[in-house]
Amino acid sequence: MELTKQLAESVLSAHPLQDQRAVEMARNGLLDAAAAALAAKEDEGIQKLMALVEQEGGAAQIPVIGQGKKVSRQAAAMLNGYLIHALDYDDVHSDVRGHPSAVIIPALLSQLTDGEAYGDRFLSAYITGVEVMARLGESIGKAHYERGWHNTGTLGAIAAVCAIGHLKQVSQKELAKAIGFAGAQSAGMRKQFGTDMKPLQAGLAAKTAVWSMDLACSGFGGSESVLDGELGFFSLYGDQKLAERRLLEGYGAAWRIVSPGLWFKVYPFCSAAHHAADAILSLLKEHTFSLEQVKQVDVIFPPGGDAALIERTPLTGEEGRFSVEYVIALAVFGQPLSLDAFTKKAISPEMRAWMKRVNRVYDQTTEPHPDAVPKGRFTIVKLTLFDGTTISKRVDIPRGAPGHALSTEDILKKVSSVTGASQAQQILQAVEEGNDAAYLKLLV
């Protein structure tokens, strides 16, 4: 099979705008990405990255979100990708097992030079990018993530270059080569979770996409079959035979941005802990107990359900984004699961000591809910008090996930919470009108 060429042909010939629900989801994705990026505009990491980029110099072409400055196209893709993903407040997709918008949107925004606007085609390209990234996630196999790869980085560059190719309607040959350039540079490690480098991996994937398309359109030489064969991307990173079955199956018949759909977060931490967050908050609402009364908390996952939660004894709120122990402790201590709790600030010794009461348990016998998000997942939070009382709560579909989704109004409130109601309404208007140039301008 010529997967690379066939993917390029599918990307260039499909018509996502015929699906109105896909268009609506794309608009919500743009709105949610604005909230995530603007929430991070004063992040320490972006200040360090801006300083490095400014030292390097280059043409001032594309704005950096929330910074009031323009940088080169590639630098803008990197910085805006970092910003959207910086606080882990951006969307996720269960097929991707990662964060599509943090890579795809910055790569597309970097094409808006000299105020050029693409209108509805921008939305079409965004839907395309999510589609490709979800299909890559389905095709790469579970072992890819479990070995330690960060899917947002490894799959994002190829997906974003496909989005750019669809936007600009390049030739099939150019897109096939661009996919190859992106595949050759694909990287990202889960070992970096809980550090500045984790969101930078999203930014680097976006930058790689912009650079890869530039290389292809310049006529630079490269393979047009990087996804194929024993030495190809899927053989190196995952499962070639699975990819041959899944990557192109039914392309264009339905859109992954709709089903299983994007998951817009209500909490600024890893989605793998959202089930537990909903569960503990529900228990606190339904029962009366103090943190001193809690002897033990068992957080029960299916095997592998906590793979992204690599921090068991976090030292800072930033590390705590990937710690179910910290999320449980925050809630029991009566502290909100808000942006302020997940910064670089040190976790108090008292809370760190209390987190030792939280245990992870793995259950192979519990039947997953048929509509669980992600598929096959659940989390049960079970509290045992010193008097012997036990209470528990199971969550299969957390708030914000498909099946328990946020509305456009909910996402607008998320934007308003970080930028104010007036600007949020202007961003919504730009998104609804398909004015991609105005959308970018409003994020400056």
TrEMBL record:
Residues 267-426 form the MmgE/PrpD C-terminal domain. Coiled coil: none annotated. InterPro entries: MmgE/PrpD_sf, MmgE/PrpD_sf_1, MmgE/PrpD_sf_2, MmgE_PrpD, MmgE_PrpD_C, MmgE_PrpD_N. Residues 6-241 form the MmgE/PrpD N-terminal domain. One of its GO terms (molecular function) is lyase activity. Pfam families: MmgE_PrpD_C, MmgE_PrpD_N. Belongs to the PrpD family. PANTHER family: 2-METHYLCITRATE DEHYDRATASE, 2-METHYLCITRATE DEHYDRATASE-RELATED. This is MmgE/PrpD family protein. It comes from Bacillus xiamenensis.
